[in-house]
Amino acid sequence: xxxxxxxxxxxxxxxxxxxxxxxxxxxxxxxxxxxxxxxxxxxxxxxxxxxxxxxxxxxxxxxxxxxxxxxxxxxxxxxxxxxxxxxxxxxxxxxxxxxxxxxxxxxxxxxxxxx
Length: 115
Hints:
Largest sheet: 2 strands, antiparallel
Strand order of the largest sheet: 1-2
Distance between the termini: 28 Å
Strand content: 5-15%
Number of helices: 5
Structural class: mainly alpha
Low-confidence stretches: 1-14
Mean pLDDT: 81
Shape: elongated
Number of strands: 2
């Protein structure tokens, strides 16, 4: 059965992964109905510290290294929602060490740094 196209030493899935599906369901469950709106990075950071699932509602322009680190340290599945430019080797390592299947969300240029 062909599950993806060969790229490097792993396979890229053709359809949404189980992790993506779980993340979507958990996020929907964890949120209290309406999507949250943030007026500043400070507001977003405060809410993510209270409820990590608020990270799903933080727009990319308000995400920074600190808020992404807090989210990923709390739940590695949230690496899927970290903007590519904020995915550092350290942040990706945190996620992959907690859950090796998160390797699918690690950028190519970082992926090869992993043993």
